[in-house]
Design a protein that fits this description.
Elements: H1 2-11, H2 16-26, E1 35-38, H3 48-63, E2 67-72, H4 82-95, E3 102-104, H5 109-121, E4 125-128, H6 132-138, H7 156-167, E5 177-180, E6 195-199, E7 214-216, H8 222-229, E8 233-237, H9 244-254, E9 262-266, H10 278-286, H11 301-307, H12 311-321, H13 332-346, E10 348-350, E11 352-353, E12 356-361, E13 369-375, E14 385-391, E15 393-397, E16 417-420, E17 425-433, E18 439-446, E19 464-465, E20 468-469, E21 474-481, E22 507-514, E23 526-529, E24 533-537, E25 546-553, H14 557-564
Parallel strand pairs: 1-2, 2-3, 8-9, 10-23, 12-18, 16-19, 21-25
Antiparallel strand pairs: 4-5, 5-6, 6-7, 11-22, 12-15, 13-14, 15-20, 16-17, 17-18, 21-22, 23-24, 24-25
Helix pairs in contact: 3-12, 8-9, 12-13
The chain binds one RNA strand of 74 nucleotides through helix 6, strand 6, helix 13, strand 19 and helix 14.
Length: 565
RNA sequence: UGUCUCAUGGUGUAAUGGUAGCACAACAGUUUUUGGUUCUGUUUGUCGAGGUUCGAAUCCUCGUGAGACAACCA
C-alpha cells in the first residue's frame, strides 16, 4: 500500500523547478543541501497568489529534505508595519507550513552597509546628487541607451565621505543616493547604474527604529540576504526574471567562495473575476468597498478562510494548477471545485431555508411534533445521524413551489407529489395569496405510511425538497457571496478603473432558518445546506446569533435548464 | 523598434524524438430520499511556414502573437 503511494508519487511528473532541483542534487551541488525561503514584504496581507509561492518554497524544502526559512524583506519602512508581520505568520501556519527560522532583511542592515562601503572602495559605487527625475531621465528607455551621471566618476574618498554623511542623517531625504557603477548602455535596464541605497529619515523602521537613515534597495538586499543565509534555491515569480543577471552580478562582486544561491522564476497566479494586486486590494479595503482584508470576497488567505475554504482545499488547488513559465489566468471554477470535492466528502448535511415560505400539512394533527432521523453525510459510510423535529407547519424554499409549473418541474405544485427530505411524501393541494397575488402559504397533505424508513417511503417520487419546522427553526443571517468583479480579468482592462468593474451583487444578505441541530455551532464550522451549497459559520456569529457564509453553491442543473429557456 | 521570457482543447497542465493524456468547464445519458454526488460517454487542442529525422508538441531556422523590464517599491 505504502509502496503504491510512493510509486504513484514518483510517477507524477515533476514541474520544471523540481527537475532543476533534482538535477542539482544529482550533480552534488551544495553538498546535497536544499534551502529555500519565503520572502514576503510586510506591507499587506497574504493572498492566494502567495499561497502558490508558499507551497513552492516550503514544498521544495519538504520534498527534498531541506529547510525553508521565513524572511521578511523589510527594506522599506515607508510601507511596512508589524501588523502585517503577524498576519503573515498566522496565514502561513494556517496553510499548514512551518518555517525553520524567521529572519528579517533588516537583520543584515549592517552587513549590507559594509558591503556598500566595499563597493565604493572597489570603485563600483558612487554617490549621485541628482534628483529622482534627472536620474530617471538619464536612464533612457528599453530601446534607447542611458547617459552617465555627472557624478559618476567622483573620487572614491569623496564617495566614502558623502555616503557617511548620508548614513548619519546629515543629508535630506531624496537629495542623494548610492548607485552601482555598471553600464548605462546595457540592454538590461537594471544594469544602468541601479540605485543601491536611498535616504529615509521620515519613517522609523518597524524593527530598527531610527537607527538607520539609509536603506538598501531590493536588488542590493535580496540576493545578499540569500547569500548570507545559505539559500540554495531562490524561487520567485516571473517578473523578477530581468533582475536575475543583476542578482548574480552583485553576488559575484563580493562572494569569496564558489557557493551561489540560484534564482529561478515561475508564473504567478491569476484567477478570473478577481484582482491579485496588493495595491488594489489595499484600495478596496481603505475605501470600504469590502469589509476588510478578511472579507470573504477577497482573494486573501484570511478572506478565503472566512469564506470557508480549508488549508487542504487551497493546497490541492495549488497542486492542480502547477508551476510553469506561462502567464495565464486560472478559471475560478477550478478553485471552487477543490472545496466542493473536499466538502462533498466531509461536510455534514443540514436543512436550511434561505427564502422561506410557510407550508402547512393540513391533515397532520395540530399540536403534534415528532422527531425524524436524518443521516449526517450519505457520502461517508461511517456517518452518524441526527434528529429533526417535524410538525404541521414548516418552512420550505419559496422557489420550491410554483402554482403553474412547467412539466419538468419536480417540486411542489398543486396535484403533484413531492418528498420532504427524511420525512414524508406529501401531495400539494394549493396555496393562499395576499391581495397582491403573492403566495403566502402553501398547502399539502401527507401520507402517514410514507415516513422515511417505512416500506411505503420507497415509492418513486420525482422531487425531494428540504424543509425546517416552524416552531423550532433557528433564525439565521445568511450571506450569499458571488464574484467580486463582473469581468473575467479586471486587471486586463487598462483604460477602465477597476472599481467600475465591481459586481454590485457580490454580497446578498438574507434572513433564513436552519434546523435546531445547529444551535451550538462555532465560527468556521462548515455544513452543506442541502440542495443549496456549502456554508460556514462566520465569526460574527455570537451570543446566540447565527451567521453563515456561503462558501460555494452546489451545482444547480435545474437553474441551468431554466436558463436554456 | 532593445533585452529577457513564453505559446498544447473554453481554462490550466502532462507527454523529456515513438499511440497527444489528465483536471476543471460544457454537453448527453445513468444512478440517486440533495435537480447534489456517482458512473458512462461526447465535443473541443500542439500559433504559422520551412527544415532535420524512419518518426517532431518536443530539435533547428524564419515568422506571428503575448507578457515582463524605463519606482529613491518589492
Amino acid at each position: 500500500m505504502v509502496e503504491n503511494v510512493s510509486e504513484e508519487e514518483s510517477k507524477k511528473s515533476l514541474n520544471f523547478i523540481e527537475s532543476m532541483v533534482e538535477e542539482d542534487l544529482k550533480e552534488g551541488k551544495n553538498g546535497g543541501r536544499i534551502q529555500t525561503r519565503f520572502p514576503p514584504e510586510p506591507n499587506g496581507y497574504l493572498h492566494i497568489g502567495h499561497a502558490k509561492a508558499i507551497c513552492m518554497d516550503f514544498g521544495i524544502a519538504q520534498k527534498y529534505g531541506g529547510i525553508c526559512n521565513l524572511r521578511f524583506d523589510d527594506t522599506n519602512p515607508v510601507k511596512e508595519d508589524v501588523e502585517y508581520v503577524d498576519s503573515i505568520k498566522e496565514d502561513i501556519q494556517w496553510l499548514g507550513f512551518q518555517w525553520k527560522n524567521v529572519y528579517y532583511a533588516s537583520d543584515y542592515f549592517q552587513r549590507i552597509y559594509d558591503l556598500a562601503i566595499k563597493f565604493i572602495k572597489d570603485g563600483k559605487a558612487y554617490v549621485d546628487e541628482q534628483s529622482a527625475e534627472e536620474i530617471a531621465k538619464q536612464k533612457g528607455t528599453p530601446t534607447t541607451p542611458g547617459t552617465e551621471s555627472p557624478f559618476r566618476n567622483r573620487p572614491i574618498e569623496e564617495n566614502l565621505l558623502l555616503f557617511e554623511k548620508m548614513s548619519k542623517g546629515e543629508i535630506e531625504d531624496g537629495k542623494m543616493v548610492l548607485r552601482a557603477k555598471i553600464d548605462m548602455t546595457s540592454p538590461n535596464m537594471h544594469f544602468r547604474d541601479p540605485i543601491m541605497y536611498r535616504i529615509i529619515t521620515t519613517h522609523p523602521h518597524h524593527r530598527t527604529g531610527t537607527n538607520w537613515k539609509v536603506y538598501p534597495m531590493y536588488d542590493f538586499a535580496h540576493g545578499q540576504s540569500d547569500y548570507f543565509e545559505g539559500v540554495t534555491h531562490s524561487l520567485c515569480t516571473l517578473e523578477f526574471e530581468v533582475h536575475r543577471p543583476l542578482y548574480d552580478w552583485f553576488i559575484d562582486q563580493f562572494a569569496t567562495d564558489d557557493y551561489r544561491p540560484r534564482q529561478r522564476e515561475f508564473n504567478r497566479l491569476n484567477i478570473t473575476y478577481t484582482v491579485m494586486s496588493k495595491r488594489k486590494m489595499l484600495q478596496l479595503v481603505q475605501e470600504g468597498l469590502v469589509r476588510g482584508w478578511d472579507d470573504p470576497r477577497m482573494p486573501t488567505i484570511c478572506g478565503l478562510r472566512r469564506r470557508g475554504y480549508t488549508p487542504s482545499s487551497i493546497r490541492n488547488f495549488i497542486n492542480k494548477i502547477g508551476y510553469t513559465k506561462y502567464d495565464g489566468v486560472i478559471d475560478v471554477s477550478l478553485l471552487e471545485s477543490s472545496i466542493k470535492e473536499e466538502f462533498n466528502a466531509t461536510a455534514n448535511r443540514v436543512c436550511a431555508v434561505i427564502d422561506p415560505i410557510k407550508l402547512i400539512i393540513t391533515n397532520y394533527p395540530e399540536g403534534q411534533t415528532e422527531m425524524l432521523t436524518t443521516i449526517n453525510n450519505p457520502e461517508n459510510e461511517n456517518s452518524e445521524s441526527h434528529d429533526m423535529p417535524f410538525s404541521r407547519e414548516l418552512y420550505i424554499e419559496r422557489e420550491d413551489f410554483m402554482e403553474d409549473a412547467p412539466k419538468k418541474y419536480f417540486r411542489m405544485t398543486p396535484g403533484n407529489e413531492v418528498r420532504l427530505k427524511s420525512a414524508y411524501i406529501v401531495n400539494c393541494t394549493g396555496c393562499k395569496k395576499d391581495a397582491d397575488g403573492n403566495v403566502i402559504e402553501v398547502y399539502a397533505e401527507y401520507d402517514s405510511q410514507t415516513k422515511s424508513g417505512l416500506p411505503e417511503s420507497n415509492r418513486k417520487v420525482k422531487g425531494t425538497i428540504h424543509w425546517v419546522n416552524v416552531a423550532t427553526a433557528l433564525p439565521a443571517e445568511i450571506r450569499l457571496y458571488d464574484r467580486l468583479f463582473n469581468v473575467e480579468n479586471p486587471g486586463d482592462e487598462k483604460d477602465r478603473d477597476f472599481r467600475e468593474m465591481l459586481n454590485p451583487d457580490s454580497l446578498k444578505v438574507v434572513n433564513g432558518f436552519v434546523e435546531p441541530w445547529l444551535k451550538d455551532v462555532k465560527p468556521f464550522d462548515h455544513f452543506q445546506f442541502q440542495r443549496i451549497g456549502y456554508f460556514n459559520v462566520d465569526p460574527d456569529a455570537k451570543d446566540g446569533k447565527l451567521v453563515f457564509n456561503r462558501t460555494v453553491p452546489l451545482k444547480d442543473s435545474w437553474a441551468k435548464e431554466l436558463k436554456k429557456g
